[in-house]
UniProtKB/TrEMBL annotation:
Belongs to the amino acid-polyamine-organocation (APC) superfamily. This is Amino acid transporter. Keywords: Cell membrane, Membrane, Transmembrane, Transmembrane helix. It is found in: Cell membrane. GO terms for cellular component: plasma membrane. Its main location: membrane. It comes from Mycolicibacterium obuense. It comes from the Bacteria. One of its GO terms (molecular function) is transmembrane transporter activity. The chain crosses the membrane at residues 32-54, 60-81, 102-127, 139-160, 167-187, 207-229, 250-273, 293-318, 352-372, 378-395, 407-429, 435-454. Probable amino-acid or metabolite transport protein. It is a multi-pass membrane protein.
């Protein structure tokens, strides 16, 4: 790979940089389209939002509102970090260049394991939604076919992927708009009902107040549902004027996601005929659609959700390929593995080998039982967000006043985010049902640190070369 030097800084030392080899052809809008596709607000509302409605009732509004505030705080941390280090590789690139190589490698391990498994989780759910229109679909083979097709699509030029994911995204946003309209034109209760957290009580068949513990878990569900706005950083090297544009892409993605999820959920709560029936349903969002729009519209929307899931898989495949490419270019892997993983397509200007390798891992993940996949990915998000918040604090201490985007209300965003994440950890530790997931997350992070100290640290002169990429657009 080629390296260049930037103009000398105040120290007189010209820091080395990578020459850009990816297609710098995305604007803020194109980056946001792909990032939102990876989040998939519609599937979040139907799957995660539906599960939250069944478990936490009207507490979902408070939970998702608080989660929205926390997510915006974390998005501010991502934005400031990305404006200093607009390098493909997402969390790994930001953390390694701020908190140091050891923690960066731990975060790389988190992404290396979880991104392919998240693709597998999404893919295994496609048949459930397509099945309403196409009977007899085998979940496993459907997942494998979808994963292979998504990986092939991810090997196209980034602008082509922006158009493809943008078209799918339009369909899923239309589905969310339909939910909002159906709820707001059939309002059955005052807005104040949203502010009174009540959940379904199976013992009485009615509603009962939701406790603080339940509300905290609803917040964690909301944070997980909004997750993905940091994905904009994966495309930093393909975004024009990246030091400014990627920060804007992160913030726009977070704001749009929060609005696109909380508005239809509020509409459902206000517009359903019976809260008790809604919360007692196995699939609350689908039940609301059946109630207000009928079976034919419900089938159409569920097929749209299947397309939204496929869209998310394409976007996550794009991200995962860039993670592996960035780590290989930094020599975070043995040279024999790193060399082929840094290959870039001459025509599409994308890391095709790394993308295919991650696609193969995702396809293999489809063979793993769903329960194992969920446990393996369930608690890693808190670790990732915790490292990002710490990185934002450390970077501000070392940054010059005029360097890139600077978040408002400093140091509230990272400190408040860390407190929220600490609360999530405490809740997880107190809940025996989450111990396995937490243990797996701790194990992945520990494996990353062990790999660094046992292999990479002694090769510091030739491995883990943490350079930035020259932003040729400004």
């Amino acid at each position: 790979m080629t390296r260049s030097t930037t103009p000398p800084g105040v120290t007189g030392q010209p820091p080395a940089t990578y020459d850009g080899v990816l297609s710098r052809s995305l604007g803020v809008g194109g980056n946001v389209l792909i990032t939102l596709s990876g989040i998939s607000p519609a599937s979040s509302v139907f799957v995660l939002g539906g599960a939250a409605l069944a478990a936490y009732g009207t507490g979902v509004f408070w939970g998702f509102a608080i989660a929205g505030v926390i997510s915006l705080l974390i998005a501010l941390c991502y934005a400031e970090l990305a404006s200093r280090h607009p390098v493909a590789g997402g969390d790994y690139s930001l953390v390694s260049r701020t908190l140091g190589p050891a923690t960066g490698v731990a975060v790389f391990f988190v992404g290396l394991v979880t991104l392919p498994l998240i693709v597998a989780i999404f893919a295994l759910g496609v048949a459930d939604y397509l099945g309403v229109a196409i009977g007899g679909l085998d979940p496993l083979w459907t997942a494998i076919v979808v994963t292979v097709l998504a990986t092939a699509t991810a090997c196209l030029n980034i602008r082509a992927n922006a158009w493809v994911t943008g078209a799918f995204l339009f369909v899923e946003m239309a589905a969310l708009a339909l939910l909002a309209v159906l709820g707001f034109v059939h309002v059955e209760r005052p807005v104040s009902a949203l502010l009174d957290p009540q959940a379904f009580d199976a013992a009485t068949g009615g509603l009962a107040p939701l406790g603080i513990a339940g509300l905290v878990i609803a917040v964690t569900q909301g944070i997980f549902s909004y997750n993905g706005y940091g994905g904009a950083v994966y495309f930093a090297e393909e975004t024009k004027n990246a030091r400014r544009a990627v920060a804007r892409a992160v913030l726009w993605s977070a704001a749009i996601t929060i609005a696109a999820e909380i508005v239809p959920l509020a509409a459902i709560l206000l517009g359903t005929g019976s809260l008790t029936d809604l919360f007692g349903s196995d699939l609350p969002v689908e039940a609301f659609l059946e109630e207000r729009a009928g079976h034919a519209v419900t089938v159409f929307v569920l097929v749209s959700i299947a397309l939204a899931i496929v869209n998310a898989i394409i976007a996550i495949a794009l991200q995962s390929g860039r993670l592996l490419f960035a780590a290989a270019r930094d020599q975070a892997l043995p040279a024999s593995l790193a060399a082929p993983l840094t290959r870039v397509s001459a025509s599409a200007q994308m890391p095709w080998v790394a993308t295919i390798v991650m696609g193969v891992l995702a396809t293999a993940g489809c063979l793993v039982p769903l329960g194992v996949l969920l446990n393996a990915t369930g608690s890693t998000l808190a670790f990732s967000y915790g490292f990002i918040a710490l990185a934002a604090i450390m970077m501000r201490r070392n940054a010059s006043p005029g360097d890139g985007y600077r978040m408002p209300w400093w140091p509230l965003p990272p400190v408040a985010a860390l407190l929220a994440i600490a609360t999530i950890f405490v809740v997880g530790v107190l809940d025996p049902n989450q111990w396995l997931s937490l243990g797996i997350a701790v194990g992945i992070v520990a494996a990353g640190y062990a790999y660094y100290f046992c292999y990479l640290r002694s090769r510091a002169g030739t491995h883990l070369l943490l350079l930035d990429v020259r932003d040729e657009e400004g």
